[in-house]
Design a protein that fits this description.
Layout lengths: L5 E7 L2 E8 L2 H12 L5 E8 L6 E9 L6 E5 L11 H17 L11 E5 L9 E8 L5 E8 L5 E6 L5 E5 H6 L19 H7 L9 H15 L11 E3 L8 E5 L5 E8 L19 E9 L5 E7 L6 H9 L11 E5 L7 E7 L4 E6 L8 H11 L9 H11 L24
Parallel strand pairs: 13-14
Antiparallel strand pairs: 1-2, 1-3, 3-4, 4-5, 6-7, 7-8, 8-9, 9-10, 11-12, 12-13, 14-15, 15-16, 16-17, 17-18
Helix pairs in contact: 7-8
């Protein structure tokens, strides 16, 4: 390898493949496309820089002409700022947290503070501070969480479990994913009164958190969850990447913690009724999932899966997590483009209890029971950044607010027009 060249991992379908070398990312992208592409095919991939700032480049779309064999590579918009935690970094961070709880501030300390700040002794973090918080215990105390930021901007929460195991997740997903809500007591720790709301307020204080990036993220999450809006036309929601390893998957979370997911992966090219069973919601809180339907000329259409919200989703989710229930979440509807006629939208309806699946046209004339209307309300909450979805929104709106039928009164044709006809 020439000294002027850098090395990159090719990331295809969210998995790291082999290492490639080149003087620039676009040069490497062409090498990846030349090796990975077959004649007449397309591919999308990212490049993860090895060493240096560990930036991620892409997405790159590449196509190989079937006749000439010529390869075209297009650099799409950048999805994220940088790379992700290495296995070595994760091991060191967990070791630091364990040592802190078992031998440091968190062990048998009568003057325990609710937030404790120290420095990360890891070179790759640029001496970024780490803040431990939410102490818990009766005689000896352990801190439940720690927050830190990579120099490239990714913010993480470490979760200290009862078995001394430690999870590391993105900060935003930690506060907005219902899965992690069980970590919080509604009224907080008996000694410190810490709950999710209090923690988010504390994380906005400069005396506790030096990083402006963390303070700003805490402010956004707090405003979403706890500041009501008087404008009913404004749909509050927050969009983010829940897992830095998978930047192609984005999440839209609403104040009640229900959420939708945009996954840029493509569904199976064989469209069938059974496709609705192939996707399973993450939880009872998930309202929708959007994937892509690919056509032969490189044209894509969205495929939208919808789960009807349950009034007791909190209890169902608790039972699912504790494995006390046999009821699992499932998508009730799937809306997609008819492969034989792109002007027609189809909708698959599924009942997991009766195993009944049916397919019909999705248009203004569809049988509109309350369940279909509920699905249409969900469709209208999907943010524009997840797709314009113009046809789907128009149909959903017409189902919820049908235009009244205007008939002719008896003998109306014999009467003179009161107003001249317009072009509207």
């Amino acid at each position: 390898m020439d000294k002027s060249e850098k090395s990159y991992y090719a990331v295809i379908e969210n998995k790291k493949r082999e290492k490639f070398y080149g003087a620039s990312p676009i040069q490497v992208a062409k090498k990846v496309a030349s090796k990975k592409l077959k004649s007449g095919k397309e591919i999308e991939f990212y490049l993860d820089e090895v060493g240096g700032k560990k930036k991620r480049y892409g997405p790159y779309q590449a196509r190989k002409d079937k006749k000439s064999g010529k390869i075209a590579v297009v650099n799409g918009r950048k999805v994220m700022k940088g790379g992700v935690l290495s296995t070595s970094d994760r091991y060191k961070l967990k070791e630091i947290f364990n040592n802190f709880n078992n031998n440091g501030e968190g062990f048998n300390n009568p003057k325990l503070e609710d937030f404790v700040k120290s420095r990360l002794p890891i070179l790759s973090f640029g001496n970024e501070p780490i803040v431990y918080f939410y102490p818990y215990g009766l005689i000896s105390y352990t801190y439940s969480f720690a927050i830190f930021k990579e120099s490239i901007g990714n913010i993480y929460i470490m979760i200290y479990k009862l078995n001394n195991d430690i999870d590391i997740v993105s900060m935003t997903d930690f506060f907005l994913n219902p899965y992690y809500s069980s970590n919080f007591n509604t009224f907080g720790n008996s000694r410190f009164g810490l709950n999710k709301k209090t923690i988010l307020l504390k994380l906005q204080e400069q005396e506790i958190i030096e990083s402006r990036t963390i303070r700003e993220e805490a402010r956004k999450i707090y405003e979403l969850l706890y500041l009501p809006t008087d404008n009913k036309l404004t749909q509050k929601a927050m969009i983010y990447v829940p897992n830095y390893y998978q930047p192609r998957i984005r999440k839209c979370v609403y104040p009640d913690l229900t959420f939708g997911v945009l996954d840029e992966e493509t569904v199976n090219q064989r469209i069938s009724q059974e496709m609705i069973q192939s996707e399973i919601p993450e939880s009872f809180y998930q309202l929708y999932l959007i994937k892509q339907q690919s056509f032969f000329n490189g044209y894509y259409e969205p495929v939208i899966y919808i789960q009807r919200p349950s009034p007791n989703k909190e209890e169902l989710e608790k039972q699912k997590l504790s494995r006390q229930s046999q009821i699992n979440p499932y998508f009730n509807y799937c809306i997609y483009t008819d492969p034989t006629d792109r002007n027609r939208l189809k909708i698959i309806s599924y009942n997991a209890l009766t195993k009944f699946i049916s397919t019909s046209d999705f248009n203004e004339n569809i049988y509109t029971d309350d369940n279909i209307k509920m699905a249409c309300y969900i469709l209208l909450t999907i943010p524009d950044i997840f797709g314009r979805l113009e046809r789907v929104r128009r149909i959903a709106n017409s189902i919820i607010n049908p235009q009244p039928f205007v008939g002719f009164p008896i003998n109306s044709l014999r009467k003179k027009l009161l107003y001249p006809a317009s072009n509207v």
